[in-house]
Amino acid sequence: MDMHSVLYLIFIIAPLTTLIHELGHVSGSLAVNADYIQLSIGTGKRKMVLKRKRVEFNIYPAFFIGGITRSERAKPYNKTESVWITILGPTFNAITALISYLLFEVFPSEFLQLLFWFNMWMAIVNIIPFTINGKRTDGFTILELIRK
């Protein structure tokens, strides 16, 4: 992989894949009627805030380093609703991987190939239950919810 591809992966594909993943969680939260949803991309001092109805979107300068979605509702989520919100992140990545693969078969490009592989990686890694430095994967959260 050349330097151009690495930069492309870090500054375009990774943030786009993270956004797709977090939008999965946002969609799940909207589906179960969350009162407030906050999607944040990146780290550092907040640079931009976009608000639309009950969704707040925060962008940080290091936009290529991770993301998180939080949602709240006056009535606590039940187990099924929590699993639904959680599983839609990796599901959105798996769907994006499938779509990018199908498009790559028709329109081969480095962008679609990187989009496919990074979304596959994101879907698979996030569904495996483990924790690192106190951060849990979606798979860990789902397993924890099922065990309760």
Keywords, separated by commas or semicolons:
148 residues, alpha+beta, four-stranded mixed β-sheet, two-stranded antiparallel sheet, 4 helices
3D architecture notes:
The chain has helices at residues 3-31, 79-106, 110-127, 138-147, and strands at 36-41, 48-52, 55-59, 67-72, 131-132, 135-136. It is an alpha+beta fold. The protein has one domain (3-33, 75-147). A four-stranded mixed sheet has the order 2-3-1-4, covered by helices on one side. The longest helix is centred in the N-terminal third of the chain and has 29 residues, at 3-31. 28% of the residues are buried. The mean pLDDT is 95.
What's the short version?
With 148 residues, the chain is α+β, with helices and mostly antiparallel strands. The chain has helices at residues 3-31, 79-106, 110-127, 138-147; strands spanning 36-41, 48-52, 55-59, 67-72, 131-132, 135-136.
